[in-house]
């Protein structure tokens, strides 16, 4: 039995998202037992298409997500964003694009929005209004899932705000990802590079507090816990990644629940760029169902374009005239469908590597 026996191809919402993540978490046949699905940050339709192409080629589900900054970029860097209007419109545009093309790729897709800190809540409100409007018309939300990241706030406030929003999301069946404990490093303008080391490791009691508060509302939520993860790629050695801590969280929650299930928590791995395959494997074994990939795919997208520009430099100095003759036209070199495509190819290849690392290959 494969994933397409339990959920359809195209964008998933509600129960189908729960089924997908549960299938990944409880899977027993793959090499690393359970597996996780990479969530790739999408900044344009080109990036989204390259990710979908990779997922199709290796017969895997995929998660496409927009950050607040990425969503604004999707709408257009030239737009004002003082009230999050560009981030709201861009998130909607990205989701509508993905919805339009995803069924053609024949893979299940989760559309998600990335970190939303307290000061960005107007962005979150705008996306939920879009979901509510879409729900009225189609009987399902536009997005599959959203992340709230109030990890910088006191724990009680973090949980209370998540509860408030989750109550609004639950009737539409939208998945909530929340963060507790802090992901170090810098991403999308949020700088946690100077956060104290102890705050980078979440405690099992904190995870349990989150679980019990949210589980009272519904089962469709996941927790991004800090276990020494850092956004971006840095010299190793500053903070030590301890994916084994995630196993302690599962054990603690399982005991609290009377031991009925071994891994009751759906966990999310942020800041995984530069992690070893062994660390990823340990994290996935402990119930990580989603791993964010941004830094490495940003790099991969550039590589194809960089190599093209370097290798074809003689063909892109003028519209006419290249090493083959002064009257030779260069249109087939400067057409964006040629050089952007080269970036799509290297990005797509990198997405496949992320899927392989997470055991997310051939599950359809
Ligand atoms: Zn993150």
Features:
12 helices; 364 residues; binds zinc ion; alpha/beta; three-stranded mixed sheet; 45% helix; globular
User: What's the CATH superfamily, by name?
Assistant: Aldolase class I
Structural class: alpha/beta
Count the E strands: 14
Total count of domains: 1
Along the chain, the helix and strand elements come as EHEHEHHEHEHEEEHEEHEHEHEEHH
Largest sheet: 8 strands, parallel, barrel
Net shape: globular
CATH C-level: Alpha Beta
Chain-averaged pLDDT: 93
What is the CA-CA span between the terminal residues? 8 Å
Number of helices: 12
Bound molecules: zinc ion
CATH architecture: Alpha-Beta Barrel
Name the helicity range: 40-55%
Spatial order of strands in the largest sheet: 2-3-4-5-6-9-11-12
Description:
With 364 residues, this protein is of the alpha/beta class. Helices cover 45% and strands 16% of the residues. The chain is built from twelve helices and 14 strands. The chain is globular and about 80 Å long. The termini are close together. Zinc ion is lined by residues 115, 183, 187, 231, 270-271, 292.
């Amino acid at each position: 039995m494969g994933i397409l026996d339990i959920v359809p191809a195209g964008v998933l919402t509600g129960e189908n998202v729960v089924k997908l993540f549960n299938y990944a978490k409880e899977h027993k046949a793959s090499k690393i037992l359970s597996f996780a699905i990479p969530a790739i940050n999408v900044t344009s339709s080109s990036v989204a298409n390259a990710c979908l192409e990779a997922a199709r080629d290796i017969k895997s589900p995929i998660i496409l997500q927009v950050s607040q900054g990425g969503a604004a970029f999707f709408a257009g860097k030239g737009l004002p964003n003082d009230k999050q209007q560009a981030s709201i419109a861009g998130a909607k545009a990205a989701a509508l694009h993905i919805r339009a093309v995803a069924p053609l790729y024949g893979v299940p897709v989760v559309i998600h929005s990335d970190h939303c800190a307290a000061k960005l809540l107007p962005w979150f409100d705008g996306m939920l209004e879009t979901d509510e409007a879409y729900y009225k018309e189609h009987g399902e939300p536009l997005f599959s899932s959203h992340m709230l990241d109030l990890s910088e706030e006191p724990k009680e406030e973090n949980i209370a705000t998540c509860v408030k929003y989750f109550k609004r999301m639950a009737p539409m069946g939208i998945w909530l990802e929340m963060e507790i404990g802090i992901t170090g490093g810098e991403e999308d303008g949020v700088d946690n590079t100077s956060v104290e080391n102890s705050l980078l490791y979440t405690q099992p009691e904190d995870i349990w507090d989150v679980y019990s508060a949210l589980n009272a509302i519904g089962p469709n939520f996941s927790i991004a816990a800090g276990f020494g993860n850092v956004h971006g790629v840095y010299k190793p050695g500053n903070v030590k990644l301890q994916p084994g801590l995630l196993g302690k969280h599962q054990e603690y929650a399982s005991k609290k629940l009377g031991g009925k299930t071994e891994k009751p928590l759906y966990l999310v791995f942020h800041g995984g760029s530069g992690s070893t395959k062994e660390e990823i494997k340990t994290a996935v074994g402990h119930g990580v169902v989603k791993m964010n990939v941004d830094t490495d795919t940003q790099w991969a997208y550039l590589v194809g374009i960089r190599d093209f520009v370097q290798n074809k430099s003689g063909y892109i100095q003028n519209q006419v005239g290249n090493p083959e003759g002064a009257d030779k036209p260069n249109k087939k070199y400067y057409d964006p469908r040629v050089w952007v495509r080269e970036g799509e190819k290297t990005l797509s290849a990198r997405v496949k590597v992320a899927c392989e690392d997470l055991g997310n290959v051939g599950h359809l």
